[in-house]
Backbone:
């Protein structure tokens, strides 16, 4: 399973009495391929690839193409999970 975790932002809010901060973490996963392989002949068919598997290491051009079906990562359904953590749930 390909899983990318990105830290989007850290917000710091100051007032006279306390400091509140939050951390937003977004996890992106690429699922089944949705490319229509029969579009050129007027039909509709997907290849059945159930999950994106990169051909290369993260940061290389091969990481953007799927080892199972050969499609670019953009043809796979993107699933995003967002998590917000308060200042008590991450180290200062």
Residues:
């Amino acid at each position: 399973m390909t899983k990318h975790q990105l830290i989007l932002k850290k917000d710091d809010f100051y007032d006279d009495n306390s400091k509140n901060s939050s951390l937003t973490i977004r996890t992106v996963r690429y699922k089944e391929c949705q490319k229509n392989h029969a579009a050129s002949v007027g039909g509709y068919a997907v290849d059945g690839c159930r999950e994106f598997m990169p051909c290369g290491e993260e940061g290389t051009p091969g990481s953007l193409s799927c080892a199972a079906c050969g499609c670019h990562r953009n043809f796979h359904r993107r699933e995003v999970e967002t998590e917000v953590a308060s200042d008590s749930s991450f180290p200062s």
In short: The CA atoms of residues 11 and 34 lie 36 Å apart. The radius of gyration is 19 Å. The beta strands are 3-14, 19-33, 76-86.
